[in-house]
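If you are new to this repository, start here. Below is one unmodified record pulled from the training split, so you can see the exact layout before writing a loader.
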Amino acid sequence: QVQLVESGGGLVQAGDSLRLSCATSERTFGNYHVGWFRQAPGRERAKVAVLTSTGGRTYFGDPGKGRFTISRDNTKNTVYLQVNSLEPEDTALYYCAAVASYRDPAGPYDYWGQGTQVTVSS
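And here is the target side for that same chain:
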């Protein structure tokens, strides 16, 4: 199955920016829809952004619509999430996920990484 590994999280101050990365060795990664999700302790997992195999982007919630940017580099088999002007409410474990291009990009997603922690202090 497809294996995904997130990186780039950390402890930051409110107003800082981060770029999260999600890498895979899957040679046909360009044939997958990808998404970023986040989950805070005691909260349900929430969808942040989706990038389809054909380049379509969808953002979810106010943070996703404004401060977040999802992108991918298929030559590097990597998907990114740029997050600007971080707020304490953004504190969560961020996951990337993938699903084959012939599936619905709205979900459900089949492949998940282990997550990278983002902690924002005020």
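Two things worth knowing about this chain: The first strand starts at residue 5 and ends at 7. The two ends are 40 Å apart (CA to CA).
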